[in-house]
Amino acid sequence: MSKYFGGCDVGSTYTKCVILNEKGEMVANTTIRSKINSEQSSRLALEQTIAQVPELKSVEDLDYLIGTGYGRNKVPSADENISEISCHAMGVHVTNPQVKAIIDIGGQDVKGISIDTDGTVKNFAMNDKCAAGTGRFYEAMANAFEMSLPEFSKLSLSAKNVIPITAQCTVFAESEVITLVGEGKPMDEIAAGIQLAVAKRCFVMAKKAGATDSITLTGGCAKNDGLKKAIEHVLKLKVIDLDIDPQLMGALGAAEYARQKGLAKG
Amino acid sequence: MKDLKHLIYFESLLEDAHNELVRQAIDSGGLALGYTCYHMPEVLLNVDRCFSLRLRAPRTGSMDIATYYMSNYTCEFCRALLERAIEGGYNFLSALMAVDACAEMNRCAENIEVQKLVPNEKFFVTHIDIPYKVTDYTIRHYTTQVRVHVLDRLKEVYGVDVSDEALRKAVEEHNEVCRILTEIGQLRKADNPVITGYEYHILNLVSYCCPKALILPKLRETLEELRTREPDEKPRFRARVILVGSEVDDPDFTQLIEEAGALIVADRHCFGSFPGRQEILLNDEEDVLTQICRDYLVTSQCPRYMSQEKIDGRRQFAAQLAKEYKADGVIYEQIKFCDYWGFERPIASQIMHTEFGYPVLSVDRPYMSRSSGQLRTRMQAFVESLEIKKIQREREAEKA
Question: What are B1-60's pLDDT values in tens digits?
C-alpha cells in the first residue's frame, strides 16, 4: 500500500484536513465548521478526508499525522503537534516557494509570518487576546449589515470612497457601524472602511514580522477580495494569489511536515 | 526526574500572600513588611523581628475596582495588587514599603494608603525617592531616603532594632539564601540540568514571599536533594532560553513556556534571580547602610535608568547570561502597560537579534497568562524555529 500523510488544522471557526501522498501531492482535503469540542471537530474532518482516499480505511492507516491550530493537541491519533505559524509557512512554501511572507487571518487571530528559503519560519508577529481584525470581527460586521461574508466583501469593492472606522475593538466597531448606518452614510463606503481597518492591523503584523515583498494571504479571510484590495492599498504591494485554497495552508503545512517526518522515519 | 520533595509544599505557599509561614511568623511576633520593587532593599526589611514579603496577587480574577481607581491603561500587576488590597488580601501587613521608581506602582501604593485599605492600627505606607543616576551623590541621597523613611520609621513605630549589628545579621541571613539559590542556579548551566526553569522559579519565589528564617531549612534540604538528583536520561526540552523582562511572579507563565518545549535557564526579570540573589559583601571600613544601598543601586537592571551606559549595560548583561547559560534564544516579556519595559522590550529585542545574534521572541502579556492560547502558540512557534536553526547549524557543522 502507498504511504499517506495527514495534517489536521483545528481552528477556532473551521477545521481543515489534508492528506498527501509520498510525492507530496494533495490527494484529499476537507473543510468543516468547527464544533465546540476540538476532538470531535478533528475526528469528523479526518473521517471525511480519509473517505476520499479508497486505500485508507481509518486514521490509523496514515503513516504520520500532525495536528495544528488552536486545537492541535486534541487531534486523535496524531503523532505530534506543530504550531500553526510553522505550518502556514510550510504550506505556503510548498504551494509557491516564491512567496516570502504571509498574513494569516484566522477566526481569532492575525499573524504576520516571514518565511525562510526552506519553508521554516524566519520571524513572526501575532495579535494578543483581542479579536480586532480577525474572522470573528468580520462575522460581527457582516451580521450588523445583515449580509453573508461574500456579500459584504462584494459590497466593499463597489465603494468609490472610504469612511474610516475609528474603533478597533469588535464591540465598539459594531456600535460605530450601526451609528454610521443610522446616519444614512453609504453602506459600501462603511464596508470599505471596515476592510481598511482590518488591513491596517494586518499592515502592522506584516511589518513586525519583517515582510518586505512577495506576500500572500492565508486563512479563511484570504477569500475576502475586499480585504485583499485594502491590504494591497496599505502595503503598496500586490498580494500573490495561491493555486490552492488559502484556508487549507495550515493543514497542508502540517501534512507536509508529516510527510517529511514520516519518510525520515522510514 | 524524580519530583522534588518540597515542590508541592512550595507551590502551596505561593497560592496566597498570607501563607502558612507568614501566619507562623506573625504569630511569633514578627512584623510583615510588604514591598514591590528591587529598589526597596529587601535585606533591610529582614532586620530584627521584621520579615520582607515581595507582594504578589495570586489567583487574580476581576480587577474592576482597581481599574476604576487606576484606569485601564496601567500595568496589570499594579492593579492586581490594589485589587487584592481592596479585597483585604494584605490585612496582615505591618507596613508597605513603597518606592518612587515607577508612577503606576506609586499610584497603587498611594491608593492603599489614602483609602486606608489595611486596617492595622500601626500600619503605615512609606515612600522613598529613587535617583535616576548612580553616582556618589545619588547613593548618599538614596541612603538618606532609606534611613529616614524606612529604618527610622520602623524604629519609631515598632521599636525595631536598626543598629549596624542588626543590619549585618540580616545581611548574613540574606546571603545564605543567595548562596543556596546561586548554587542551584549554577546547575542550570549543565547540558542536561537537574532542575527546570519552573522549579527554579518556584524556589526563587518562595524565597521572596516567605520569612527567610522559616523557608531556609527547606531551601537547604532542596539544595542537598539537587546535588544528587539524577537528570532525565533524555532531555525533554527542545531549546534553551533566557527570560528577560518585567515582573514575572506567575509560575504558570514559566510553565507555559516550558510546556512549549523551551527550558528557561536564566531569569533576568523582576522576581528573578538576576539581580536579587547575589550575596552582599560588606567591609568593615564603610557605613553598613551605605554599602547595602550602593549594592542595590549599582546592580539594578531596571530600564528606568536611561543613560546610554546603563542601556548598553543591560543588553550586555542579557547577552552574557545567554552565553554563560548556553541559551539558544531570548524571550523578552513585559506586562502590558509597563512604562519602562514598553520602551526597553521592543528596542532590546531587535538589538539582541541584530547585534548579538540571538533569536528573540518579544511578548507583552497580561498579569495572569496561563489561559492565553495565542501566547502558547507563539511560544511553540518560537521553540520550533529555534529547534530548526539548531538542526541546520548541526548539519552545517557535519558538512564542514
Answer: 999 999 999 999 999 999 999 999 999 999 999 999 999 999 999 999 999 999 999 988
Q: What is the pTM of this model?
A: 0.86
Which H helix or E strand runs over B168?
A: helix B164-186
- Give CATH for domain B236-399: 3.40.50.11900
Q: Which of A68, A83, A116, A127 to mutate to test the interface with B (most CBs of B within 10 A)?
A: A83
ipTM over 0.90: no
- In chain A, residues with a C-beta closer than 8 Å to the C-beta of B372 are 128-129
d(CA B220, CA B16): 23
Interface contact flag, B381 A109, Cβ < 8 Å: no
> What is the rounded distance in angstroms from the CA atom of residue B168 to the CA atom of residue A51?
76
Does residue A266 carry a pLDDT above 80?
no
Structural domain range at position A235: 98-241
User: By three-state DSSP, how is residue B306 classified?
Assistant: coil
Closest CB from B366, B372, B384 relative to A86: B384
Residues A119, A79 share a domain? no
* Chain A hits for B374, Cβ within 8 Å: 108-109, 126-129
How many whole angstroms separate alpha carbon B203 and alpha carbon B272? 10
**CB proximity B396 to A under 8 Å:** no
